[in-house]
Amino acid sequence: MNPKKIVFRVDASLEIGTGHVIRCLTLAEALRKRGCECQFICREHPGNLIDLISERGFTAHCLPSAEASRGLRQDPRSLAHAAWLGADWRTDAGQTRKAMGDVTVDWLVIDHYAIDEGWERKLRPACRRLMVIDDLADRTHDCDLLLDQNLVASWQDRYRYKVPDNCAFLLGPEYALLQSIYAELHDRIPPREGRIRRILVYFGGADTDNLTGMVISAFGVINTEGVFMDVVMNPVSPHIASVRRLAGKDNRISLHERLPNLAPLIAEADLAIGAGGATSWERCCLGLPTLIITLAENQRPIAEELDRTGIAQWLGHKDNINAVQLSRTLQTILDNDVPPEWSQRCYALVDGRGVERVASFILLDAQTTFKTRLARLDDEQILLQWANDPLVRKNAFHPDAIDPITHRKWLCKRLDDQENCRLYIVEIENVFPIGQVRFDKIEDGWDISYSLDHRVRDRGFGKSLLQDAISTFKKTKSQTLIFARVKDTNVRSCRLLENINFKLNIHKKNICIYILEI
Predict the structure, then answer these.
(1) Model pLDDT for residues 232-262, shown as the tens digit of each residue
(2) Residue 368 has what pLDDT?
(3) Dist. CA 399–CA 392, nearest whole Å
(4) What contacts 403, CB < 8 A, 6 or more positions away?
């Protein structure tokens, strides 16, 4: 079988930062481990990471450098970050298509604030499926899959009407694209509590505003013994020389450059000071309390939500913070112990397995292997989502939405009654649940019901879902009858049941009752 071909269109620069490329590299490495062939297309902006992409073993096609403003179309529809593309969007789309060659790739993955549906339509003929990684929700897309790993207010609704109706969503920190080491460390590092002894400072790959220098200056006037600081900065930063000088004057400070990842330093730290970008999820995954100073407008809603939920403390935007204010805040925090619940809230938000979930979803096909397991109490949220899916409610015999309290009581009762109920979750590779199948004891046998995650509908997985669950159920309850009650208007479910050897037993009052002997 030929490997799946996946192309990433993503850039890094002193203005854009490095986060977009780093998270795409993380996804590409996970896909490569599963046999995919991944390539990158990047423009040669100052501060690009093309050499890093090549060092990681991926082919990087380079688009020529251009002044950001040259050739940009100035019209009312111009995107807020249009200048970041380094060319007008039509030129960039044409150059990208040429770099891809004559092949049609399986997935084209776009992680760029300067690309929207116009560019994406131009590239549609060059790919079977198109994925967008976004953080802003400020433009429309023509894509099959949209990933936004951030936690912001109204995060589940902000892409409504901005993508096609059949677009699948992967939303929230459970899909954060973190390197595998974060999942490995997640369950091994205890919650932070008590006195702060080590502080980690990192403001992204460029830190063009030199907030790192400001933090070092603020730390320098604090007379606290036994507290040390790890500072991480990219050597391409325009302020690296001054940071080296400042750090060299304080023996409490260690400066780190060219690190493969931050995980070891995050694991050692008791407190972090940094920006509100992608590193937020790395810190959360390892339970590190953080003080956030936002660097860009798109970081504000993330910082606001993290502050509101007690995951991090947002000190303000870069323009509103100075060294004097920061030193006072730091001194106050250092004078008090870190409460353990702060760290525990971070742990609960991110488990580090997001890249596994995303890779599993991307590679879903007819050969995908499923695993069926009994439901647990921690499946409550996904089960409620499936139960209240509009199509599920439309086809249900009781179409009213289910409130969370009622659902929790119902779930606890079902989980406690193993003799009369078997509730199964069907997953891909233990990381991505695609649906549920429930067997309830009735007088003559067992009643079966199911629901499929809307993100995997219309891809032929309903048959596998039911067959896998029935096979698992059969191991515990053989020589019995399974009944399925379906509205006769639910033609798709009727055909599916017939396709897996259920026989129509009764059809009356708009209800079809099917039967299967196992």
Answers:
(1) 998 988 999 999 999 999 999 999 998 989 9
(2) 85
(3) 8
(4) none
Q: What is the largest CA-CA distance in the chain?
A: 85
Helical segments of 88-158, H only: 89-100, 117-123
DSSP 286-315: TT--EEEEE-SGGGHHHHHHHHHTTSSEEE
The structural architecture, per CATH, of the domain 5-171 is 3-Layer(aba) Sandwich (3.40)
CA–CA gap between residue 426 and residue 317 (Å, rounded): 44
The whole-model pTM stands at 0.89
Residues in the chain: 518
Query: Nearest to residue 231, comparing CAs of 223, 242, 221, 222?
Result: 242
Domain 365-517 grouped into CATH 3.30.360.10: no
The residues with which 147 forms a beta bridge, in sequence order, are 133, 170
DSSP state at residue 477:
S
* CATH topology classification for 182-349: Rossmann fold (3.40.50)
Which pLDDT value is given to residue 77?
55
Output Rg (C-alpha) for the chain, integer angstroms.
Answer: 26
CA-CA distances (angstroms) from residue 37 to 2, 4, 27, 29, 356?
10, 6, 12, 10, 17
Structure tokens at 355: 């890249």
Query: For the chain, which residues score pLDDT lower than 50?
Result: 68-69, 71-76
Find, among 111, 106, 105, 117, the residue nearest to 142 by Cα. Answer: 117
The tokens for 415 are 């989980």
Handedness of CA 185, 191, 195, 201 (dihedral sign): positive
